[in-house]
Amino acid sequence: xxxxxxxxxxxxxxxxxxxxxxxxxxxxxxxxxxxxxxxxxxxxxxxxxxxxxxxxxxxxxxxxxxxxxxxxxxxxxxxxxxxxxxxxxxxxxxxxxxxxxxxxxxxxxxxxxxxxxxxxxxxxxxxxxxxxxxxxxxxxxxxxxx
Length: 146
Description:
The chain has a single domain (about 5-135), classed as SMI1/KNR4-like. The chain has about 150 residues and is of the alpha+beta class. It is globular, with a radius of gyration of 14 Å. Helix 2 (about 25-35) packs parallel to helix 4 (about 65-80). About 30% of the residues are buried. About 30% of the residues lie in helices and about 20% in strands. Strands 1-2-3-4-5-6 form a six-stranded antiparallel beta sheet. The chain has five helices and six strands, in the order H-H-H-E-E-H-E-E-E-E-H.
């Protein structure tokens, strides 16, 4: 299983796994997003529809939105703002709960934190891939490597 490492007893209780999104919900997200979402990301949503955990790197808190939350974010961006105009190729997947978004770079699956101003200069890499982000789940102290 791709995400078996997240079921480790030491980690599982620290990241708040939820029931996975249905295939219909994931298809709706794909349609609403208008972009090609990385398979690791959509597979994770089928495994757990979002997450809320600590991570050992800035921004230290990682709230991955559930499918409904991502769709609401897309609708908010499309209706009220052009939040990602300065960050083409990125997709908002969550936040730290304090004014910073967690974004996924679509071509490489790199995961970054970006301040509310959403400019490329404000990007702080959290993990080189989405799977590497998941490997940080439940850790609150800095670890040497991802």
